[in-house]
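re: ur question from yesterday

yeah so i grabbed the chain u mentioned. its 206 aa long if i counted rite. heres the sequnce exactly as i have it in my notes:
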Amino acid sequence: MKIKNTEFVVFDVETTGLSAQDGDRIVEIAAMKIKGGLITDKFYSLVNPKRLLPPEATRINNITQEMVAQAPTAEEILPQMVSFISGACVAGHNVRFDLGFLCYELSLIGRRLHDGTPAIDTLKMAKDLIPYLSNYRLTYLARSLGVQVAETHRAMADVELTVQVFIRMIEMAAERNLLDISKFLTQFAVEKPSFKLVSLAQPSLF
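ran it thru and got these structure tokens back, copy pasting raw so excuse formatting
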């Protein structure tokens, strides 16, 4: 299958901290579905983490306790996210971080991404395709590719930025004759984290 015919879901999460296994939780999730270089759908929600937000997290993402108080919980919103992904390939910048939170929180409710869902890391792509950059932070990478940077550290803003970066790097990969999704995945895919399912009250696969 050609990359232009492949559906990708670029996503990002904002969290209370750096480690889901140490009790940090998702407070915001956003995703865009793209195919053939075009955005075809969007997904967004604040998430009630059912815990207090550390002040240092609020300073970074500007998400307050009041903002998430009436938001859906992970148990309510994350199954919708998995349905949104469906059979697409997921992608993100340093996607292991976001996947770690998504997969861990899904495991707490007895759910998981399908084993066959590939994951592309735009950070891995950038290091391969643009090896001369001095750093690979999303904003720096975007500016190096001529992408205008506005708001950051909010899930949808970071997704929008990542989508533009991703599309440009797909074009760069095409110049290397990486036109087939199988070759593309071999070059840029990363392994998804795996966690033991905690609750089996509901089906574990979508």
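noticed a couple things. The chain has eight helices and five strands. also Strands lie at 7-15, 26-35, 38-46, 89-92, 119-121.
anyway ttyl
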